[in-house]
């Protein structure tokens, strides 16, 4: 019998005893479901084939693909991947899901320790490996989407790009005070798709980066990957902070359509003044909204561009609210009203970015901790060494986006089976986290979950196995 450790005899009912035992009990069976998604999408194999691991392969215990999968599973299940790694080393379901070991002996394989996972992040922080993580994220979104469409890409897809502030405690490398957000933070760029609910890319930036800082090359890279994995034509949707001649000209030269909000200015307001008048007659009970096309060229622009003036009545007085959109899409393809409707879908992308922050809870807190000794010898001038903390934080951001994307594929399957929308919060509570027990046999491992959760698992698996999976 397993050794027991009495934890509690509650005062409200003395017949209850709470004990801790060395049995294979856990609460994360969803990790096995998520690992199955990684196998179906080819994500684990993608990492094994693409990521460069400088370690001597014959001397390592945990391959790099296993380290990456462990990070993703811990994040997806709601754990602080490195902080909780040691305590969860022998969690049965997590161990079975993370390991590449086959057969019943997989139950004896523990998760990598916190230092091992941290060294894995250092490996991924290399420039070539960060590019592979970004490629993996877009490829994962494409594989999941094409599986539902029998391997076919979409004709057009809209990509939303925005900054997403992550507050930090202390003076982490690259963090800075951001007056707009009112905190010390990082301000990475995040690319997503409102139509698909997918994450497509991430770029780490300092907390005081301007809205459009580093955006041009990042957007071009995301567009190139999206058109390779997801669609034939990518349309970029931006807020007012990204409006610049350099970005517009680059997207036009690349043949990438865009819709962006423009910051109001006195010249534009002066030119649009004749159109900013309330229509004649008694106003209706419901406030009206209408759009007007304006030819306009800002002083910094190299040529005139199509600007859409959006006007809306205020119910409380006779005034009009207004704002401006600029687009490279001609009126023969989209009317002014259609341009506005396309831009309004940006709210869906913002809600998905909110889920990334609230559900996956990225903790971008890597800092420079140089070694004071190595191989039992003191390291001279250790204070000048750098662990590339900023690059590590970009890796952490991408790992959290990958975890989000794996969760989103599970959510998409369950939504298709149930015919209703669900949140990632609900998915985790109802499907991924429940009581579980692992029973080891001579030839088989049996993972037992609560029967009330089994029907949801069956719905997800049935839908996943019906889709056509093509590796990235």
Automatic annotation (TrEMBL):
UniProt-listed InterPro entries: RNaseH-like_sf (IPR012337), Tnp_DDE_dom (IPR025668), Transpos_IS1380 (IPR047960)
One Pfam family here: DDE_Tnp_1_4
TM region positions: none
Region (Disordered) location: 265-289
Transposase DDE domain mapped to chain residues: 10-357
UniProt-listed NCBIfam families: transpos_IS1380
Protein's UniProt name: Transposase DDE domain-containing protein
Organism: Rhodovibrio sodomensis
């Amino acid at each position: 019998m397993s050794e027991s450790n009495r934890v509690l005899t509650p005062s409200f009912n003395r017949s209850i005893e709470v004990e801790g035992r060395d049995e294979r009990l856990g609460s994360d069976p969803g990790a096995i479901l998520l690992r199955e998604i990684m196998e179906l999408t080819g994500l684990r194999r993608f990492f094994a084939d693409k990521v460069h691991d400088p370690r001597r392969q014959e001397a390592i215990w945990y391959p790099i693909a296993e380290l990456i999968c462990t990070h993703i599973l811990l994040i997806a299940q709601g754990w602080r991947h490195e902080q909780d790694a040691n305590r969860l080393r022998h969690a049965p379901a997590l161990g079975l899901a993370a390991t590449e070991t086959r057969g019943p002996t997989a139950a004896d394989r523990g998760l990598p320790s916190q230092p091992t996972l941290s060294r894995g992040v250092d490996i991924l922080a290399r420039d070539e490996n960060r590019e592979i993580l970004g490629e993996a994220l877009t490829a994962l979104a494409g594989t999941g989407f094409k599986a539902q469409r029998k391997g076919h890409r979409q004709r057009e897809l809209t990509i939303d790009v925005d900054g997403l502030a992550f507050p930090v405690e202390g003076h982490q490398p690259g963090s800075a005070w951001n007056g707009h957000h009112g905190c010390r933070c990082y301000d990475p760029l995040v690319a997503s798709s409102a139509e698909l609910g997918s994450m497509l890319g991430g770029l780490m930036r300092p907390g005081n980066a301007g809205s459009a800082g580093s955006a041009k090359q990042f957007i071009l890279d995301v567009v190139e990957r999206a058109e390779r994995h997801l669609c034939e034509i990518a349309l970029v949707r931006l807020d007012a902070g990204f409006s610049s001649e350099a970005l517009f000209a680059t997207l036009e030269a690349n043949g990438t359509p865009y819709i962006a909000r423009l910051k109001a200015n006195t010249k534009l307001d002066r030119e649009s003044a004749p159109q900013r008048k309330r229509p004649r007659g008694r106003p209706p009970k419901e406030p009206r909204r209408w759009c007007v096309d304006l030819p306009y060229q800002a002083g910094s622009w190299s040529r005139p561009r199509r600007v859409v003036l959006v006007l809306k009545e205020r119910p409380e007085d006779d005034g009009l609210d207004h704002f401006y959109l600029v687009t490279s899409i001609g009126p023969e393809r989209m009317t002014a009203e259609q341009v506005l409707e396309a831009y309004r879908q940006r709210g869906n992308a913002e809600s998905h970015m909110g889920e990334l922050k609230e559900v996956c809870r990225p903790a971008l807190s890597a800092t420079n901790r140089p070694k004071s000794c190595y191989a039992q010898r003191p390291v001279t001038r250790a204070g000048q060494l750098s662990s590339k903390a900023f690059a590590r934080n970009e890796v952490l951001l991408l790992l959290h986006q990958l975890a989000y994307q794996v969760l989103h594929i599970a959510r998409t399957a369950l939504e298709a089976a149930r015919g209703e929308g669900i949140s990632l919060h609900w998915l985790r509570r109802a499907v991924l986290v429940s009581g579980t027990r692992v029973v080891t046999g001579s030839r088989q491992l049996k993972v037992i979950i609560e029967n009330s959760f089994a029907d949801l698992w069956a719905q997800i698996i049935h839908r996943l196995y019906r889709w056509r999976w093509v590796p990235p």
